[in-house]
Structure formats: C-alpha cells, structure tokens
Amino acid sequence: MAEDKLQLAFGDLFKSIVHEFSTALTLVKRSHPSVAVRSIRLHLGQLPEDEVETGPSLILPDRYPDIDKGWQLQLELGERPEASLRGVPIRLPSVSVPTVLDLFADQPLAAVKGIDATWSQRFAEFEILRVCHLVRLEEPLLHKLMNSSHSLLPREFRQKTRLLKVPVPALPLPESPLGKMSLYKMLQMPTDQLHERLGRRKVSQEEVVALVELLDTLSIVIDSSLLRQTRFEQLIGG
After folding, report:
1. pLDDT per position in the chain (238 positions), as tens?
2. N or C: less crowded end of the chain, CB within 10 Å?
3. For the stretch 57-89, what's the b/e string if a residue is b when 16 or more beta carbons lie within 10 angstroms of its beta carbon?
4. Is 30 exposed, middle or buried (0-12, 13-18, 19+ CB in 10 A)?
5. Alpha carbons 11 and 13: distance in angstroms, whole number
6. In this structure, are residues 212 and 190 in contact, taking their beta carbons and an 8 Å threshold?
C-alpha cells in the first residue's frame, strides 16, 4: 500500500499554502482592519540528508532531481514572490501566465463546436472571423447578432470560447509518443492510464485530475477535427 501514498508537485504544495494564508489573512482583515500584511516568508524542511526515510517521498521524486537527499523549501509571498530549494533559487512562473485560449485564438470560428458555414458567414458580416474576435465580442454587437439571427446561439458560442481562458497546465514535457499524441486520443484514455503515461513519479494525481477536466472542457468547446490535429506538446508549450 506504500506505493499508493499521495505525492505532490511543488505547484500542489504552493496552492495549498496560498489557500491557507489567504484564509488566515481574510480573518486578520476582519478582526484587525488597520493591519496590512505585505509579504509572508515560509520555511519548510525535511529530515537531514542522512536521516531521510526510505519510503515514498511526499514530493514527486522524478520531477525534482536530488529530492531524496532531503529538501528545505523557502517561499516568500508578496509583491515580489521568491522561492528556493536547498538554497538554490527556483524560477517562478511569469506573471503573464499563458492560457489555453492562446493556443486556439487565431483559429477560424469553425474551430468552435457548433459553428458551421452558415454561422461563420453570419459572424463574418460583423467582421468576427476568428476565435479571438468572438472572445472579445461586446454586448451591443452581440445583441445585434442575436436580433439578426433570431437566436441565442451567438451568446452560447461566445461563452464557449471564454471557457478557454484557463491557465496552461504546468506539466513537464512527456517523452514521445505521449507528447505527439492528439488531444482527441488523450480524451479516450482512462485517467489511471493517462497518469501512468505521464509518470506517477513526475506528475501528481491532482495535476492529472486538473488535466482531465481541462480536456473535458476542450471536448465541449473545440471541434473534434481540430482536437485530432492538436498534439499534447502543443497544449503544454512543447
């Protein structure tokens, strides 16, 4: 049963820590409204190198080299967040986090499930030609479209594209052939098999669940023909 122990990516750990501090700071603001907390520093450690337990580690071992030698993690959360592992700085994600929308923004409207040639022509009459145009469609023009088509579908189509405004998963690039696999084929894989292919010592269960939820969203929004053409490595920025 030891092999079934839950293991985490640092992203999982950071999210839990941020959630805990966010809740605590909310309570502080309620009880002490004049107090301003500008940054928080947190130091997490593990057993010294010569005392590290031999069982499954809390942190994914194949994702982070030398994690089995004991680790000390230091986080500073604030206007200029920083992190270090065993004294070595960890590169944090850019403030501008890429989204799934970035991958499909320049696609023609036919990439959106349900938009056929007739709807593409209707949108084109209002100079809405690509997915990025539909995402930015404002209410006045949206109502003109609905009135001219006597349909609520333009609102539904716009909302579908806005579902793509989710961050790209921060996953390590898998070895071939998974990186070359289409998103359509990945949607056909059982979750356990997907986790196995991604690497149980590289990707956490929480990350796999989030990835499956994202793929489910894509199956709702993006036409299956495009999902068959889009590789997993394109999604995660390979």
Report:
1. 345 566 777 777 777 777 677 777 777 777 777 877 777 777 776 666 565 555 556 677 777 666 666 677 777 777 677 777 777 777 665 556 789 999 999 999 999 999 999 999 999 999 999 999 999 999 999 999 999 999 999 999 999 999 999 988 888 877 768 899 999 999 999 999 999 999 888 888 888 999 999 999 999 999 999 999 999 999 988 5
2. N
3. bebbeebbeebeeebebbbebeeeeebebeeee
4. exposed
5. 5
6. no
Cβ–Cβ < 8 Å for 172, 202? yes
Q: Is the pTM of this model over 0.85?
A: no
Contact present, 172 and 180 (Cβ < 8 Å): no
Q: How far apart are CA 191 and CA 127, in angstroms?
A: 41
Single-letter amino acid, residue 230: T
Task: Match 């909310």 to its residue by tokens.
Answer: 26
